[in-house]
Structure formats: C-alpha cells, structure tokens
Amino acid sequence: METTFSTLSVTEEKNQRTTASFIHLSTLLKYFFPFANYIAPLLIWTFNKEKEFVNEHGRQALNFQLSILVYTLLIGLICLPFALIFALDFITLVQTVDAGNGYFSFSTIQNISGYVLLFGIAIILLIGLFVFELYAVINAAIHANRGELYQYPLCIPFIKTTSPKKSLK
Questions:
Q1: Which terminus of the chain, N or C, has fewer Cβ atoms within 10 Å?
Q2: pTM for this structure?
C-alpha cells in the first residue's frame, strides 16, 4: 500500500518533517565525532527509508556530505605539491639560518612569502567551504521542517533518486 503525501495525518507529516530535519542537522555531529556526518544521517535515513519525503532528504544530505568531502580533498590535492616544495625549502631555510648565525636576508623571507600566501588562500578556501556547508545544512533543515524539498547547491548526485520528488505541502 503506497502512501501519498496528501493522505498523511498531521502527526505523520510532522514526524516526517522532524525526521528529515534531524537528518540534515545530524551531519553537524562531525565536529564532535569522526565520520558522524556520514554515520548519523545514514542511520536515521536507513530506519526511515520507506517514507518518501524522508528518503529524499536522506539522499540529499548524504550526497552533500560526500560532495563536501570531494571538494575538501580537491583543495588538499591542489596544495599538496606546494606543501612538499615548501617543506624542502623550509629545511634549506633552517640550514641557512643555522649557518648564518640567525641572519635573515630579504631573499630568504621573500621565498617563504609565496608559500605563506598559498597556505593563506587554502585556509580561506577551507573556511569558505565550512561556512557554505553550515549555511546549506541549516537551510536544508529549515526547508525540511517546513515540509519542502531542498536541493543542495553544488551537490554531486552520488546516490541517485528513484522516485519523483514531492514535498509534503
């Protein structure tokens, strides 16, 4: 027997909206427990998969968390070669400072400034990704609580949707 959203009781609708909101908000547990941003929503989603509205929000939340992982890894991979070069240059800098009795030249400081700039850009990108994720998760939880579907921006669809998308309203 298939249940459509229009035949749901008020209590069932509210339970689905609350569950969908918890799925999105549970991704923030990653700041307290490792991998909780995957495990918590996956558990909530798995236990409530038969509810179409919750099922769609669960897919969206997990797809977004996997997308954030991909974006974070890309930022790290872009910075990895520069970090290795910086490590080699830093060893040379330490040897130069030891040999020169603590004397710094302008060229020594200039060599490091490029790497500091690169790490600054990487940190700004990671902070921007953090703020974007926080905004999107809170926005998705608000939409779920209102009974509306939410499509995360810049989300890669790893887990495909099999059913037509309907909101509770």
A1: N
A2: 0.79
